[in-house]
Amino acid sequence: MVTVSEAMAKMIEYSEGSRHDIDHFMKVWAYAKTIGELEHLDEQTQKTLELAAIVHDIACPSLRETHGSAPGNLQEQYGPPLVREFFADSDIDAAMLDRICYLVSRHHTFKDVNGMDYQILLEADFLVNAGEDEKYLRAVSHFRENVFKTKTGTRLLNSVYRENHP
Fold it and tell me: Which of 11, 111, 121, 154 has the fewest C-beta atoms under 10 angstroms from its C-beta?
């Protein structure tokens, strides 16, 4: 089955030199990996989470080209077919691919969260987004109270964004 490192290298190539996109998904992957391991995810869920973290913003380059920006709802809509294409030549099993597509299709949706992989992807993406975008930084307290559920994610949020701590 495809390894996380193989997917990472392929996504770097897919990003065509966009250092922002590469830096973003690598940071999200690092947070997701860290939170998942410290929350003791099983091996399959951990791998699913890490692969989803790598490809979660796969639609952003094409959306910026066609729409001038990459709003979350369009990322969720356009991402899954691109994920399927991205993994088409891999031996990833169908159930894992379906879950990765599901996670990508909901990585900006904060309600009806089903599964630790989903919860952790939301937390990891927010941790990075808050460092990249002022609107997310202003929302740290709201996310701490309403979105973050894992002990590890909350601990990291409090450590990184101390000045936004109540």
Answer: 111
State CA 133 to chain mean position distance: 16
How many whole angstroms separate alpha carbon 141 and alpha carbon 158? 10
**Both tokens of residue 81?**
């077919």
pLDDT tens digit string along 4-33? 999 999 999 999 888 999 999 999 999 999
User: Considering only CA atoms, which of 81, 24, 95, 87 is closest in space to residue 57?
Assistant: 24
Domain ranges for the chain, please list them: 4-164
Tokens of 14: 């897919």
For domain 4-164, the CATH class is mainly alpha
**Cα–Cα separations (whole angstroms), residue 158 to 29, 32, 113, 115, 145:** 19, 16, 22, 23, 12
**CA 101/CA 29 separation, integer angstroms:** 16
Cα(93)–Cα(115) distance, rounded to whole angstroms?
19
Query: What are the residues whose beta carbons fall under 8 Å from the beta carbon of 99, sequence distance 6 or more?
Result: 48, 52, 117
Identify whether the C-beta of residue 49 lies closer than 8 Å to the C-beta of residue 162: no
Entry pTM: 0.94
Q: At what angle do helices 72-86 and 60-67 cross, to 10 degrees?
A: 130
